[in-house]
TrEMBL record:
PANTHER family reported in the protein's UniProt record: PECTIN LYASE-LIKE SUPERFAMILY PROTEIN (PTHR31339:SF4), PECTIN LYASE-RELATED (PTHR31339)
A Pfam short name: Glyco_hydro_28
Membrane-crossing residue ranges in chain numbering: 30-50
An annotated Gene Ontology molecular function: polygalacturonase activity
Signal peptide: none
Source superkingdom: Eukaryota
Name of the protein: Pectate lyase superfamily protein domain-containing protein
Entry keyword set: Glycosidase, Hydrolase, Membrane, Transmembrane, Transmembrane helix
Family statement drawn from the similarity comment of this UniProt entry: Belongs to the glycosyl hydrolase 28 family.
GO biological process, alphabetically ordered: carbohydrate metabolic process
Length: 421
């Protein structure tokens, strides 16, 4: 199926969007040259239009079989049991109440732990039936399927205490927005293998407005949580559901391998701050396909850590396919590379991207001193409608266009409340 038939919805009465940093174009005729020279001096960077490297193409099947006529990279998910699970139960059996009010955090946590024990290694499936299931953060486990039926809504708790703090990622060294620890994601997993989050278009809604308000009114104490974050995990499949209103980036696989994210609808108000759609970060063998995304930031952003922390962890993002993604983001891009790319990014194919009413289709971002590299990026068949910077095939930039304002840049690095690019 194609997701691009879905109409984008406009959200009225929202505060003005905080724009993504703009490309340096047109500021001064020599600026792009200066920018390129500076970046080359500060980091090794190579861009090449090359055919996809062997490990990528070898993993793509040749069409058919799964509902569309293009090729699929879903083979990146290699769950040992192909999704088969020994036990299955509904979250209701663990005391959850789908009334849109009751907090089900304990029920979800109990359900995952009990099913894991019952499965005895054979894998478990947790069903979320139709209803409005409010919950705080809970962790998944290995060989596990979270299945959302049509009409099921997992709703993010409105109590920040239900999103407890966890340590910053080693490759960021601090919360991305605030110093120190960060709020955990609504659905979280670490050190797992074979995790599936799927359904018949059930919805996970982060109800992120309280977090955007904290951001807008500058009362955020700790970095916001993601809707879904999987760390240091392998064989992940996230498919056929709707993700809405993430407090921060929506799907964040970090230090992961063999990740498939497909057939998703990802929605957030077009001005919701930093609600990136899908952000593979220091991860490899990642397939993102057939997704419709509209949000307040990049639809897809490939990352690999931040400044000295990202450099010292040194985990690149590589072997990534992004295909048949469509959507809109008024001030940002369809596919972004960086700006956090200190661990390096290589071997990425972006194709059949359809993007409208947006700032850019594909954007490559770095910053002074960020280190890393971006290499072997292939971009094919990009359809752009009402895209601001469409004349350039892609926009290549150094963040914030502030090389000429070194002092200002320095201050913004020092002030943890100044926000993030
Ligand atoms: C880029 O691709 C070329 C040709 O496929 C390959 O030789 C090289 O190792 C790749 N570089 C990186 C950094 O992956
Ligand atoms: C199916 O493939 C044909 C031929 O390659 C192409 O013209 C058409 O756009 C494709 N349809 C979809 C829905 O991708
Ligand atoms: C979830 O996992 C994280 C580690 O990734 C841990 O810090 C946290 O305590 C776990 N939460 C629960 C409720 O087990
Ligand atoms: C990653 O997860 C594996 C288990 O899958 C564990 O053995 C390893 O210690 C973890 N690595 C880190 C850096 O946490
Ligand atoms: C995509 O997801 C929808 C539900 O959201 C489902 O009906 C459809 O079969 C899925 N298509 C594929 C190709 O998985
Ligand atoms: C899934 O739900 C979303 C949100 O309601 C909707 O926009 C989309 O069209 C649905 N997808 C399918 C395949 O029905
Ligand atoms: C900031 O937003 C939060 C969440 O909506 C709200 O509780 C708080 O009162 C707001 N603070 C200010 C100063 O507006
Ligand atoms: C942020 O910290 C201040 C000072 O400790 C506290 O008064 C406030 O309630 C905190 N805000 C949130 C949303 O936790």
């Amino acid at each position: 199926m194609r997701c691009d038939a879905i109409l984008p919805h406009a959200t009225a009465h929202e505060p003005a969007p905080r724009p993504c940093p703009r490309p340096c174009r047109a500021a001064h005729p020599l600026l792009p040259v200066a920018a390129a020279a500076l970046l080359l001096a500060s980091s090794y960077l190579a861009l090449a239009y090359l055919p996809a490297a062997a490990p990528l193409t070898a993993l793509i099947g040749s069409g058919g079989g799964d509902g569309h006529n293009g090729s699929s990279c879903a083979g990146f998910y290699r769950g040992g049991s192909s999704g088969w699970r020994a036990v299955s139960a509904s979250v209701e059996e663990f005391g959850a109440v789908g009334d849109g009010v009751t907090s089900n955090t304990a029920a979800f946590r109990r359900a995952v732990a009990a099913l894991e024990a019952m499965a005895g290694g054979g894998g478990a499936r947790l069903e979320v039936p139709p209803g409005r299931w409010v919950t705080g953060s809970f962790n998944l486990t290995s060989r596990f399927t979270l299945f959302l039926h049509h009409g099921a809504f997992i709703l993010g708790s409105q109590d920040p205490e239900e999103w407890p703090l966890i340590a910053p990622l080693p490759s960021y060294g601090r919360g991305r927005e605030r110093l120190g620890p960060r709020h955990i994601s609504l659905i979280h997993g670490e050190g797992l293998d074979d995790v599936v989050i799927t359904g018949n278009n059930g919805t996970i809604d982060g109800q992120g407005r309280i977090w955007w308000d904290l951001w807008w009114n500058r009362t955020l104490n700790h970095t916001r949580g993601h809707l879904i974050e999987l760390m240091n995990s392998t064989n992940i499949m996230i498919s056929s559901i709707t993700l809405r209103n993430s407090p921060f980036w929506t799907v964040h696989p970090v230090y992961c391998r063999n990740v498939v994210i497909r057939n998703l609808t990802v929605l957030a108000p077009l001005n919701a701050p930093n609600t990136d759609g899908i952000d593979p970060d220091s991860s490899s063998e990642v397939c993102i396909e057939d997704c419709y995304i509209e949000s307040g930031d990049d639809l897809v952003a490939v990352k690999s850590g931040w400044d000295q922390y990202g450099i010292s962890v040194g985990k690149p993002s590589s072997n990534i396919i992004i295909q048949r993604v469509s959507g809109t983001t008024p001030t940002c891009s369809g596919v972004g590379f960086g700006s956090e790319m200190s661990g390096g990014i290589s071997n990425v194919v972006v194709r059949d991207l359809h993007i409208w009413n947006s700032a850019q289709a594909v954007r490559i971002k770095s910053d002074v001193g960020r280190g890393g590299y971006i290499t072997n990026i292939t971009i094919e068949n990009v359809r752009m409608e009402k895209v601001k910077f469409a004349k350039q095939k892609f926009v290549f930039e150094i963040l914030k266009c502030k090389m000429q304002f070194a002092k200002q840049k320095f201050q913004s690095n020092q002030d943890p409340k100044s926000g993030m690019p």
